Every structure is written in C-alpha cells, then in structure tokens.
Amino acid sequence: MTDRMKALVEQLNEASKAYYQEDREILSNQEYDALYDELAALEEKTGIVLANSPTQKVGYTVLSNLVKVRHESPILSLDKTKETAKLASFLLDKEGILSWKLDGLTIVLIYNNGVLEQAITRGNGEIGEDVTHNARVFSNLPLSIPFKGELVLRGEGVIPYSEFYRINEELGEEEQYKNPRNLCSGTVRQLNSEIAAKRNVKFIAFTLVSAEGEEISDSKAANMDWLAEMGFDVVERVMVTAETVAAEVENFRNKIEENDIASDGLVLTFDSISYSQSLGRTSKFPKDSIAFKWADEMAETTLREIEWNTSRTGLMNPVAIFDPVELEGSTVSRASVHNVSILKELKLSIGDTIKVYKANMIIPQIAENLTGKVSTAEIPKACFVCGGETELRKLRDGEALYCTNPNCSAQRIQALSHFVSRDAMNMEGLSEETLKKFLEKGFLENYPDLFRLEQYKEEICKMEGFGEKSYGNLIASIEKAKDVELPNFIYALGINHVGLRNAKLLCAHCGYDLEKIKAATQEELVKVEGFGEIIAHSISTYFRQKEHLHLLEDALQYLRIRQPEKAEEGAESPLAGLTFVVTGDLEQFANRKELQALIEKGGGKVTGSVTKKTNFLINNDIHSASSKNKKAAELGIPILSEQDFIDKFMK
Fold first, then answer.
1. Could you tell me which CATH class the domain 299-403 is placed in?
2. Domain boundaries 68-293, corresponding CATH code
3. What is the pLDDT of residues 392-424, one digit of tens each?
4. Overall fold of domain 579-649
5. Bridge partners of 52?
6. Catalytic: which of 101, 198, 504, 631?
7. Residue 176, phi then psi, degrees to nearest 5
8. Mean pLDDT of all residues in the chain?
9. Rounded to an integer, what distance in angstroms lies between the CA atom of residue 611 and that of residue 596?
10. Closest CA to 295 of 326, 257, 337, 253
11. pLDDT > 90: what percent of the chain?
12. Catalytic residue at 101?
C-alpha cells in the first residue's frame, strides 16, 4: 500500500506543478479527483501521511517573474462531494447559497479610495502573484467604484468559451490552449498587459472579504448584491435549503450547454457569515462551504482504432475510435487524445477496455484505461496520407507528431476545406471527401484550381454521387463565390493566426485595398488595433513568399472582390454603436452568423455573453429561464425576439 501511496503522491504533485506553474494540464479534473480520493482513502486506512502529500498542502508554489504577495488570510480549497444527498445533510436547517464553481483563476482584489490598488492570484493559497497590471484591463472590471474605504473581494478570472474558440482560431496550432482555464491562467500571468487586454478576460466576484467602514450584512447573498451595486459582475447563484438543493442542482445541470463560462461543478456555502465563522476550518478546508463536482456519466467500451488526422499545418492529432456508447443523452464513438504524450500516459492499445466520459458534461474524453499495461499504439513514422516522414516536436502541452512533407495531400485537403468553408469562400457541395477525390484524380492541386473545375465536367459527372444536376449546382456555387468580400477571401487564404475577425481588422486598416495589405510591413501591421508582433509577422511573411503571391495572382483573375456596403451619406444606421447578444434558435434568419453579419454591417457589435455593456439580448424565447435571460433581467437589458429586432431596426 505504501508503494501505491508514494506513486499517487508523485503523480498528483506532478499534475499540480504542471497546472499551477506551467499553465498546462496533464490530468483532467476527473482523473485528478479520482486519484486524490484514492490517496485520501489509503491515508485514512493506513494512518500514514507522506510528508509531501497533496492532502496536506493547499497548492503548489508558483514560480514566475511576477512579484509574490502573501495573502492576509489563506485561501483554502474546498472539500468536495458528488452526491446531492450530502449537500442536503450539509445544510441541515440552515439556508445556503448555491452557485457555479467557475473554472478559471481565483483572484483577490483590493480597492482603496474607490480605485483598484492590487490584484493577487490565489497561487498556493498562502502566497500569490501580483497581477494588478493585467486586472486593470479585464473587460468587465470597474477601475473605480463609489465605495471609498478599503474593499477586499475574491472572484474568478475567466475567459468565455466564445472568446476561447476565437483566440485559439487566431493562434497557431503549436500555441493553442487545451481549455479556457489554461488560456486564462496563461493570460493573467503574462508580464505584458497588452495580451490580457486583447483576450477579453472577465472577473466574476463570489465573495466579499471586507469593506472598511461599511456595516457588512450577515448575509453573504446580500453582500454579493452590494458588490453588484458597486459595478462588479457576480457569480450566478440561488438560495437553497435542504429540501430544495437537489432540484436546484438539476436546474444548474440543465444550463451547462448554454453557459458561456466554463464550470467544473457548483459551490454550496452557508448564507450566514456569523454561522460560517463559528464553524472554523480544518487544516485544509473551510467548514462553511463544500464543492459539488458533477458525477460524470461513465461508460465502458472497447478501443478499436487510433486514427491520425493531419491538419493544414501538418500537425497529426490522435483520435480514439471505440464502440459507440450513450453519454449525457448522445451517442459517442470517438474522442480526441490531444497529443502523443497523453497517448503514452494512457498506455493505449487496440482492444483495450476504456472508460469514457464528457469533460464538464460537454467534451468526450478517455478517463481511464482498464486493461492497458504498456502502450502498443504505434506512433507512425510516416504520414498515412502522403507517406512523408513524421517527427515529434515539443509543444506547450507535451509532444506532438507532425508530417514534415509540405506537399502532403492531407494538408492540401485541410487547406482547401478551409478555403471553401462558410466563413471563407462559402462554396457549397465541396465536402472534404469530394475534395479528396478531386485531388486524387488530379483535378485540383491548389485553391485557384477550384475556379477551373469546369474543364473536368465530363469526368465529374461520371463520378459516384455526381450527375448533371449536382455538377451544375457545384459550378453555380463556385460562380457565386467569385463575388466575395475581401475579409472573407483573406480569411480563406489560411494565414496563420488570421481568423475572420483579424481579417476584418486588417482590411479596415488598409482601406479594403489588397495591394496595401500585400505591401504592409510588420512595423505597420503592429499598429492595427488588436494585433501584436506574432500576427503582424505572420501576415507580412505570408505576402513575402513567392509561392503565395503566385497563387494569389492566379486566383484573382477569377474573383470580383466587393467593397463593403456603406450607409447612405448622412443616414447613420440605427445599429451603429450598439452591442447585441444572440442566443437560442432563429426562425427568420438562416443562422446566427447571418444576423451577426447584418448587425456588424450596420455598425453594431455581437458578443457572446451578457454584460452591463450589452444593449439588447436577442432571444425568441423571451420568457425562458436561461442564464442569459436572467442576466439581462438583472441588468435591465431589453430582450428582443427576432420580430422585435426587425420591427425596431429594419423598418
């Protein structure tokens, strides 16, 4: 047993070090919790506690160049449960507050004379890091408040899923983050606040620690309401009793998919501060609060295959293919293994019995390999698509496999798939499988060849799945795509770090003039709002390469690049300067992107979450109990149906 305990301590401490010091994740929350519970049970059974056991420490010491600050009082982690019955027994006859357990970076804020004075990360619970320079550029944090005494509060720094996907899209694959928590941690602990300013970090308050000279209510809920009055976004919460807590847990569970902020469970705390203080604390946990972790729905299945998908940059991602299982209401048969390091850690071999679940009830993951002793899954020495040599490279989250052949057809397929995608050239009828067949038959080599497919009419019409009608639809779609706005075309080129949003910023900066874009220097591009050295370097380098310029000139002979439509002179759009959030199903617009494009064309903006800066929430289900509707109601933001929006802004 002692050997097992030593192995668990080593594994858990290694995971904590990676999580807290290096902004990477080698164990999922579910995996860490399972190993931690096993260690705690062994310690209780044997009476032995090893000196460096994580059950005896609040966290791992943070190493960085940021100034370290000791907290006035330790920030303890919470005891946890996965049983709603334990929440009821925890409360007994007391009233409690149930709220999201936000999956970000805990931060302590100190205000003096109404001005933000200091922001400190949780760190190891005893000592954190001063990140005031970054907190000052958080997207929703008040820099000054009406309260003039010393104010201390705690909350979570988070990056919404919508921002996480946008940022990852603009990063190179080597730099992409695994989840919003890692992205937020890496962002907040940057030395350069410019990075945090561009990544829309939000601060969600969850505890009022002290307010000098203010008579603090004995109710934590009332104090959170007071923080909201001071201008802080406060965690979504509900009052509960032992009789109602189970039902409210289910209400939160039903909101997970629509929640834009990552959450790994819930927090239950007593509402009364005096009662909470009377309970005291253990060496590790406060006694007035408990974390409820989602009891992940698990399923055992058999691993059938490891599939390697080659991206347009050559990165080869391993994907586990297994016998289909039902999880959280849907059928799952595949899960990303992320990289070679995780493949090795799981010791995966074909035929292994594995346990799978959905991380945070959303993303399919492998929890455990029940039979694997040694991994026999082959790390391919050659690309399955082109036969080119592969190589292992060190990335942020471990080793990754790359195809080194720049002419790999898989990379070409992915590049072409990106070129024809909806936000790019929007060419319908060109699935990845169709593009693959066209490449194999020699109809395509690079993206300009898409505009010359008519010369293969006879061959295409004879292909399986094609005929005169489907061929005609394909050519019509390509013809329609020749009328394209410049940002969509720039995005279609697949320039590293340039998503559609950055393509729009680039075009606006250069007056929608492609020649100016091609001639722009890195020094000039750095001045584009929202750009940095990496994006500027990527764009300027792309347009200096002869191969790219040759392909560009080839394609331009077929294109009719449209200038953005402008409002009539003297007539400003009623959408100008307004911020919208769109949620729920749409009926009168094809999809949310069509509505977003309309709003942006009129000078408005569409964001992913409701804040005090939001002017309107668009949701056909005006009376739903969704988190966005509740937030809008709290902030007094009007909720419009599609028809309301059309009546108000389009007539």
1. mainly beta
2. 3.30.470.30
3. 887 666 788 888 887 787 788 888 988 998 889
4. Rossmann fold (3.40.50)
5. none
6. 101
7. -70, 150
8. 84
9. 18
10. 253
11. 30
12. yes
pLDDT for 120 equals 94
Three-class SS state of 303: strand
Go through the chain and tell me how many residues it has.
651
Q: Which amino acid is at 516?
A: K
Domain limits, CATH 2.40.50.140, in the chain: 299-403
Task: Identify whether the C-beta of residue 425 lies closer than 8 Å to the C-beta of residue 488.
Answer: yes
The closest of 81, 80, 82, 85 to 245, measured between CA atoms, is: 85
Sign of CA dihedral 449, 452, 457, 458: negative
Provide the pLDDT confidence category of residue 23 given band limits of 50, 70 and 90: low
The domain made up of 409-562 has a fold known as DNA polymerase; domain 1 (1.10.150)
Asked if 9 and 52 count as a contact pair (C-beta separation under 8 A), the reply is yes
pTM of the predicted protein model? 0.55
Query: Residues 452-511: pLDDT tens digits?
Result: 999 999 999 988 888 888 899 999 999 999 999 999 999 999 887 788 878 888 888 888
Record the tokens describing residue 277, joined without a space: 């203080």
Identity of the amino acid at 585:
D
Kindly state the helix (H) or strand (E) to which residue 85 belongs, with its residue range.
Answer: helix 84-91
Between CA 651 and CA 640 the distance in angstroms is 15
> Is 2-56 CATH 1.10.1040.10?
no
Between CA 52 and CA 55 the distance in angstroms is: 9
pLDDT digits (tens, 9 = 90+) for 97-109: 999 999 999 999 9
